[in-house]
Design a protein that fits this description.
Helix content: 55-70%
Shape: globular
Order of helices and strands: HHHHHHHHEEHHHHHHHHH
Number of helices: 17
CATH class: Mainly Alpha
């Protein structure tokens, strides 16, 4: 009996190691980045036909929405959706720090500001260097450069907060966000132009890729009331949508990697994770760096969309809104963050649009203005109800323990690996 029990334990451990290490996929991203994006656990569920159809319908809706809004003359509502997309990008980056790594961060606007100002500082000289014909292609380099600048600031922030947790970490990040805002406002070394913002007088940002060609060549009309042309709002809607989709794909990949498993272990119990060999310092550093990168990318998009940046757009209240998106939507859940972003940022704008366009024209102008001003009160009431009813968020993160014993790709007939081997051995040991 002792021999059977020992053999069972060894077989179970061997099968688990085979599942965790060998049962992985080999993709182009894995070949390029190695174990950084190498999945630790396989057996992910495939999309069902219904889920695929719903995702396809949602994608079609997102692609058609700006055409309809622009054609109907709803430029203000369309610009509001661009703002929602920017905050979704911020929330996806914050979700890495809070949802995956389990660390509180109240300084999200710091990385947003660093990305925006870095984009302004890079774009003007880079466009001059590239020349008249090629300066429209400066934006992709600016986007990456702004993300890297914010990631570097995130790395610097991670150094002094390695041993902080909970409320202490939240206070430090809150102070860091205010330090960045006040520093930008005080125009250090003449780089930020103080309250006037960037770019400075006499300078302008280059047009983004193909914007001028699309504006001059893509237009059509349906009757006398529907007229579509590629405006600045339409262009940046699609650009922000593309960046958000790219962020979702890459962040999901990171969550399923060994680094993501380190974040999960650290989130549940940092002491136990350290005892099991997880490099907590490295995991925290990567969480801050990657979360800050997407904040910087959002800042670059914001700067080009607005045409300029000023310090008053990066207040602590905006950091709270981003945090509310993650908490209300569901920490660690990408669908929850996306839905929470629409509720927190999109719902107040929809209420204001409805009030000003459909109530103001019915002889109830005062009522329409009052409803528009009360949109934040309605949002606050919704948040209180959510915290009382759904403490884990609208779409909470699903546990992934069921993937530990799924069948890996290295498991096949006759290999003796996978979950079926230890189960059969256990039954045999029990019978004997």
């Amino acid at each position: 009996m002792m021999t059977n029990t020992t053999n069972t334990s060894k077989n179970t451990t061997a099968a688990f190691e085979d599942q965790a290490v060998k049962g992985t996929d080999t993709s182009a991203a894995q070949s390029l980045f190695g174990n950084f994006v190498k999945p630790m656990f396989s057996g992910a569920k495939k999309n069902t036909p219904l889920r695929t159809a719903l995702l396809g319908a949602l994608l079609v809706l997102l692609l058609v929405l700006p055409i309809y809004l622009q054609g109907m003359g709803e430029a203000l509502l369309l610009s509001s959706f661009v703002l929602v997309g920017l905050y979704l990008l911020l929330a996806l980056g914050l979700n890495i720090i809070i949802g995956y790594a389990g660390m509180l961060d109240f300084g999200r606007m710091a990385f947003y500001a660093v990305g925006a100002y870095a984009a302004m500082m890079i774009a003007v000289p880079l466009s001059g260097f590239m020349g008249e014909g090629l300066n429209q292609f400066a934006f992709p380099f600016v986007l990456v450069g702004a993300g890297i600048a914010a990631a570097f600031v995130g790395y610097l922030l991670s150094l002094p907060v390695m041993r902080l947790r909970g409320d202490y970490l939240a206070i430090v990040t809150l102070g860091f966000g205010e330090i960045v805002r006040i520093t930008i406002q005080n125009n250090p070394f003449g780089l930020t132009n103080g309250l006037l913002g960037l770019p400075s007088a006499g300078y302008s940002l280059p047009s983004p890729p193909f914007f001028e060609w699309l504006r001059d060549n893509v237009y059509f009309a349906l009757g006398n009331e529907f007229w579509f042309t590629v405006t600045r709002n339409v262009y940046w809607y699609y650009m922000v949508l593309f960046v958000v989709i790219a962020a979702i794909v890459l962040i999901r990949r990171q969550d399923n990697s060994r680094l993501g498993r380190s974040w999960a272990a650290m989130r549940e119990d940092e002491v136990a994770a350290t005892a099991m060999g997880v490099n907590v310092t490295k995991a925290k550093t990567w969480a801050f760096v990657l979360g800050a990168f997407w904040g910087g990318a959002a800042g670059a998009c914001f700067g080009f969309f607005q045409g300029n940046v000023t310090p008053e757009g990066f207040t602590f209240l905006n950091s709270v809104l981003v945090l509310a998106i993650v908490v209300i939507g569901g920490m660690g859940s990408i669908p929850g963050v996306l839905f929470g972003g629409f509720i927190i940022m999109g719902f107040p704008e929809l209420v204001r649009w409805f009030a000003m366009n459909h109530l103001a024209g019915t002889g109830s102008g005062d009522i329409g203005a009052q409803v528009a001003n009360m949109r934040n009160l309605l949002l606050g009431l919704f948040m209180v109800i959510m915290m009382a009813v759904r403490t884990e968020g609208i779409i909470p993160m699903k546990p992934k323990l069921h993937k530990l014993f799924g069948k890996g790709k290295s498991d096949g007939p006759g290999t003796g690996g996978g979950a079926s081997a230890p189960a059969a051995t256990t039954q045999e040991g029990g019978a004997k």
